[in-house]
Amino acid sequence: PPKITRVGPERLMVAALYNRTMLVCQAEGNPPPAYQWLQKTSTAEETVYVRGAEHMLVIHNVTYEYQGKYICKATNTISGNERTILSEPIDLNVVGAPQVLRHSVEREVAVEKGSDAALSVMFCSNPEPTKALWEWGSNQLESGYKMGRFVAEGITKERIDTIGKITCTGMPADV
What we know:
2 domains; mainly beta; nine-stranded mixed beta sheet; Immunoglobulin-like; 18 strands
């Protein structure tokens, strides 16, 4: 079977949001092995994504969805028998500013005068944000505070299973 001789550059990698990062795997074998880079998510289903098919995995525009464990799979075939070896995982941690994932409502919300409206935004951030501001017109309201009939609730943590090991936070406000 193939033998992995190098995987890295490190077992714990930190990549800045929207930048480029590279993972490398070197393996020996006769015949020379084929490569696959697998990304494992930390969801209940433990989803695995194939991220590359070369010895070098280059991610040109790192986003939070790339955060997770990466495993190099080296495979060769001898007399019809497939032989595979997996590397130790590389943990890729993505750091950067908050990135909006989705708005819970449309960009414009129509409500009857005097009625309540609830708005929220879900975003990912690493490190986690310490404050958030809602702005409309000339008004500004920080999360965790009230201004007259307006309330901006605090930042809360949620996990999004479909994206994997990403800490996502929402900041609802009743306006």
